[in-house]
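Here is one chain, start to finish.
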Amino acid sequence: MIRKIPDPVHLIFIDKNKKIRYVDDTFAKFVGVESSEELIGKRIGEVLDTKDIKRPIAETVIDKKEPVLNKEIRLKKIEPEEEIKRDEQFIHLLYSCVPVESVDGELLGALEVFVDLTEMERRYKLQECESYDTS
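Its structure:
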């Protein structure tokens, strides 16, 4: 599979046993680990802070075999050593997850796609402030 996905897009493949089998290197850095290999075999709930949801979305997609498309979500940043401004405590993501099946229709798992909208959102707010200041 592809190792280098351009930021701000992140890909994860989760098998039918709900374990991570593929994750791009950019996502590994996004969650604070050096190598994507460190995440292989883990459940998504072990990697992302999912305590605010009853169950990771990918697990529901695998069980129901129904996609979740273009859902906006916010994840709390985990950066204990850094002072974080209130507006920068969350990462804003556009999230999709689709079931993956073999040509025979056997469920193989789910593909998660995260697009990090945080920087775009920050720029938009900055532009709004600048346009307000010039009015």
